[in-house]
């Protein structure tokens, strides 16, 4: 009694550390301390659990702790900053996988004496944990380029998924009523794993911010359901905090694309109308594209006083964040004001651009969110777009037939001059032409972002 | 499990969701990636259940599942906190 009371109190202390950890994430100044607090909370939870009366042997625990910590540490140290979306995707998966395994383990431990409440919690853990595990692995594969980043359609997509979910619910009810049905429990686990694959496979590359946020939320909820299985308040609290976090991010990402969560989950822009290529050709965007070379561009930059840089996924692909930083430095040395405008869904996960620019030593107070900078474009000399496309397409404001109509965009076209760095005139993820290419005040600067910007920096220095 | 006890767990869950919403809405967009990786590490709290399974006296199928769960959860915990710290170290003001 005495021992379990102390352990329960320690779990409470650990929960408080988690809450403070997240609280300190409200500012970049305190965020690192917050992460430290959260990790102290975790350490407390792990240490007191080792003193639980149920824990009697330590060999396997030690082996597991060492292997898991080693893999985690290597991943965390080795992963390049551009690989952060994959890393987060993978970590989500391991969290979900752990919940599934614990639920299965508890099932074998308790069966056949499983109360209804615990039975429900076990089934939910298997479902959410399983979907999170394989769904995250597919998301990881897509971001890593091992699985196609395109919108994958398969026959009977929605009826199939609905049937699988229905199967899990019905089978779950059977198991809750009769916990001896081992085979059904295993079947529920397998079907949940399959469902995870089927749900994430149709989601296209640029919709990954939504998918990753949602899986983040699921990994938290899986932790909560495990808490219900074990009747442990700390798991429920920690899981709920993460679940809430993921839901908020998912919501922000959906708003950033002006799409409902359903629309994203059901797969791709094309659900809004015809296939992407046809949608592109129906647009009547015509005009002349003016391209510019680095020498001329250097002179243009040299004559202005304010520049806003708009980075997109293309910057991440080209690993051009350091070149962009060099550009910022050389412009600032000439007394030009440089700021960055970050669209909420730029990149492949929430905050992706911010991390890359932080890695390149761009101070975070130069980075502005959409609502904080959008009114300033009309007072800006140059909007320099690096590897972004749909998020600056003015069609979102006025073309009701466009699939991206209504999506909040950065008002780059309001700047006196728009310079777009792209490798080609290919449309962006949404598959639609960008009328910004053809505007009178737009200059296209073709080339790989990293090479092109480095060249530009050298030209500006040479002036 | 008693119904009253179970109801208490649901209370805790619902209230924690509200706390989570209050906390997370205050996180600025620039920190959204570290928020994801850091909260991810917190969801590794499943380690508690994994340890209870892996440390049972008798070696059964539950132990095996528990040990794999310990490995998974620790990847999540150690990987998540370390990579978050690595990112947060880079965020500097001018």
Q: If you average the pLDDT of chain B, what whole number results? A: 94
**N-end to C-end Cα span of chain B:** 56 Å
Number of strands of chain A: 6
Which regions of chain A contain 5 or more consecutive residues with pLDDT less than 50?
Answer: 269-283
Largest sheet of chain A: 6 strands, parallel
Q: Quickly count the helices of chain A.
A: 18
Question: How does this structure look, described?
Answer:
The complex is a heterodimer of chains A (463) and B (94). Chain A is built from 18 helices and six strands. Chain A has three domains: 1-78; 86-270, no CATH class; 285-462, Rossmann fold (3-Layer(aba) Sandwich), CATH 3.40.50.1220. In chain A, helix 5 (116-144) runs parallel beside helix 7 (182-200). With 463 residues, chain A is α/β, with parallel strands linked by helices. Residues 269-283 of chain A have low confidence and may be disordered. Chain A is elongated. Chain B has 94 residues and is mainly α. Chain B has one domain (3-90). Chain B contains four helices and no strands. In chain B, helix 2 (32-43) packs antiparallel against helix 4. Chain B is flat and about 60 Å long. The interface between A and B is large, with 114 and 84 residues.
Any chance you could write out the topology, listing elements then pairs?
The complex is a heterodimer of chains A (463) and B (94).
Chain A: H1 2-23, H2 31-50, H3 59-78, H4 84-110, H5 116-144, H6 157-177, H7 182-200, H8 208-230, H9 233-257, H10 261-265, H11 276-282, H12 294-302, E1 306-311, H13 313-318, H14 321-333, E2 337-342, H15 352-359, E3 367-369, H16 370-373, E4 382-386, H17 395-398, E5 417-422, E6 442-446, H18 449-462
Parallel strand pairs in A: 1-2, 1-4, 2-3, 4-5, 5-6
Chain B: H1 3-24, H2 32-43, H3 47-54, H4 61-90
């Amino acid at each position: 009694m005495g021992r379990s009371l102390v352990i329960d109190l320690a779990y409470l202390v650990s929960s408080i550390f988690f809450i403070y950890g997240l609280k300190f994430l409200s500012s970049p100044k305190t965020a690192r301390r917050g992460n430290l607090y959260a990790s102290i909370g975790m350490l407390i939870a792990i240490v007191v659990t080792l003193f639980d009366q149920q824990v009697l042997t330590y060999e396997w625990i030690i082996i597991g702790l060492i292997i898991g910590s080693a893999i985690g540490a290597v991943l965390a140290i080795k992963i390049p900053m551009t690989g952060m979306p994959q890393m987060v995707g993978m970590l989500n998966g391991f969290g979900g996988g752990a919940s599934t395994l614990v639920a299965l383990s508890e099932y074998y431990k308790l069966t056949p004496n499983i109360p209804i409440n615990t039975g429900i919690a076990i089934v939910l853990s298997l479902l959410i944990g399983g979907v999170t595990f394989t769904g995250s692995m597919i998301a990881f594969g897509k971001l890593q380029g091992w699985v196609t980043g395109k919108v994958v359609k398969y026959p009977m997509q929605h009826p199939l998924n609905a049937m699988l979910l229905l199967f899990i619910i019905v089978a779950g009810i059977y198991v809750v009523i009769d916990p001896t049905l081992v085979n059904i429990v295993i079947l529920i686990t397998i079907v949940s794993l399959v469902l995870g694959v089927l749900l994430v496979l149709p989601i296209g590359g640029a919709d990954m911010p939504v998918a990753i946020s949602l899986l983040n939320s699921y990994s938290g909820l899986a932790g909560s359901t495990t808490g219900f299985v074990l009747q442990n308040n700390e798991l429920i609290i920690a899981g709920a905090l993460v679940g809430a976090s993921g839901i908020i991010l998912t919501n922000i990402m959906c708003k950033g694309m002006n799409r409902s969560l359903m629309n994203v989950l059901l797969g791709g822009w094309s659900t809004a109308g015809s296939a992407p290529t046809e949608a592109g050709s129906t647009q009547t965007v015509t005009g002349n594209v003016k391209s510019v070379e680095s020498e001329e561009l250097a002179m243009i930059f040299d004559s202005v006083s304010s520049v806003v840089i708009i980075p997109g996924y293309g910057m991440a692909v080209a690993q051009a964040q350091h070149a962009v930083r060099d550009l910022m430095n050389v412009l600032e040395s000439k007394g030009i004001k440089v700021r960055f405008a970050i669209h909420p869904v730029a990149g492949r996960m929430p905050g992706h651009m911010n991390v890359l620019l932080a890695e390149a030593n761009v101070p975070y107070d130069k980075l502005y969110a959409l609502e904080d900078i959008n009114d300033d474009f009309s007072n800006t000399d140059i909007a320099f777009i690096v590897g972004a496309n749909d998020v600056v397409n003015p069609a979102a404001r006025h073309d009701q037939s466009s699939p991206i109509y209504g999506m909040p965009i950065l008002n780059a076209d309001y700047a006196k001059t728009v310079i777009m760095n792209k490798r080609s005139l290919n449309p962006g993820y949404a598959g639609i032409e960008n009328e910004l290419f053809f505007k009178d005040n737009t200059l296209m600067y073709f080339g790989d972002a990293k090479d092109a910007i480095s060249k530009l920096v050298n030209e500006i220095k040479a002036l | 499990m008693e119904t009253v006890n179970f109801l208490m767990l649901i209370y805790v869950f619902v209230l924690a969701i509200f706390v989570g919403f209050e906390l997370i809405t205050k996180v600025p967009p620039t920190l959204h990636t570290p928020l994801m990786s850091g909260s991810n590490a917190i969801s590794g709290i499943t380690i508690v259940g994994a340890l209870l399974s892996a440390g049972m006296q008798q070696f059964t199928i539950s132990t095996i599942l528990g040990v794999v769960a310990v490995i998974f959860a620790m990847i999540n915990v150690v990987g998540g906190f370390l990579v978050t710290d690595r990112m947060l170290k880079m965020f500097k003001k001018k």
